[in-house]
């Protein structure tokens, strides 16, 4: 099965990539953009979803600075 | 509204982060993991979704090496 993990900077943690995009958009002519946050998209083929939570905690996300969510997508 | 953009390496494009995670998981005791792909999660607050496609094409994704999809999430 395919699992999708979304990893984001925790609220209050500096997100320099998001800031850079937020500043670049108006320079390209895009207006009306508020907050921008950039994280990671991780897609895995796994035999079972049982260990995905452990993979997130131990490797895929940094629990100090990041939050994550995951779902089975197919 | 909040828009979520998922950006992935195109099929056939080298994904060194995904390879690194795929190799690290068995070393941590996680088995049964096949392909791993790592991309970017971008979440934006926008006034209208009209310009999101243009933002993806012009800034958020590299059309040579990456594919993207987006959706309004709230």
Automatic annotation (TrEMBL), chains A, B:
What pathway annotation does it carry? Purine metabolism; IMP biosynthesis via de novo pathway; 5-amino-1-(5-phospho-D-ribosyl)imidazole from N(2)-formyl-N(1)-(5-phospho-D-ribosyl)glycinamide: step 1/2
List GO molecular-function terms, semicolon-separated. Answer: ATP binding; phosphoribosylformylglycinamidine synthase activity
Q: Which UniProt keywords apply?
A: ATP-binding, Cytoplasm, Ligase, Nucleotide-binding, Purine biosynthesis
Bilayer-spanning residue ranges: none
Gene Ontology biological process terms, A to Z: 'de novo' IMP biosynthetic process
GO CC entries = cytoplasm
- Name the EC number(s): 6.3.5.3
Per UniProt, the enzyme's principal EC class comes to ligase
Write out the catalysed reaction: N(2)-formyl-N(1)-(5-phospho-beta-D-ribosyl)glycinamide + L-glutamine + ATP + H2O = 2-formamido-N(1)-(5-O-phospho-beta-D-ribosyl)acetamidine + L-glutamate + ADP + phosphate + H(+)
| Compartments where located | Cytoplasm
Origin superkingdom: Bacteria
Instruction: Please give the PANTHER family that the UniProt record associates with this protein.
Output: PHOSPHORIBOSYLFORMYLGLYCINAMIDINE SYNTHASE SUBUNIT PURS (PTHR34696)
Q: How does it assemble?
A: Part of the FGAM synthase complex composed of 1 PurL, 1 PurQ and 2 PurS subunits.
Q: Family assignment?
A: Belongs to the PurS family.
What HAMAP family has UniProt attached to this entry? Answer: PurS
The entry's function note states: Part of the phosphoribosylformylglycinamidine synthase complex involved in the purines biosynthetic pathway. Catalyzes the ATP-dependent conversion of formylglycinamide ribonucleotide (FGAR) and glutamine to yield formylglycinamidine ribonucleotide (FGAM) and glutamate. The FGAM synthase complex is composed of three subunits. PurQ produces an ammonia molecule by converting glutamine to glutamate. PurL transfers the ammonia molecule to FGAR to form FGAM in an ATP-dependent manner.
Under which name does UniProt file this protein?
Answer: Phosphoribosylformylglycinamidine synthase subunit PurS
Q: List the taxonomic lineage.
A: Bacteria, Bacillati, Actinomycetota, Rubrobacteria, Rubrobacterales
Q: Which gene encodes it?
A: purS
């Amino acid at each position: 099965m395919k699992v999708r993990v979304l990893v984001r900077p925790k609220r209050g943690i500096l997100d320099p990539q998001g800031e850079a995009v937020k500043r670049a958009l108006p320079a390209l002519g895009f207006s009306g953009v508020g907050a921008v946050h950039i994280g990671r998209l991780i897609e895995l083929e796994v035999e079972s979803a049982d260990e995905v939570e452990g993979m997130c905690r131990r490797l895929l996300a940094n629990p100090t600075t990041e939050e994550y969510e995951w779902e089975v997508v197919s």
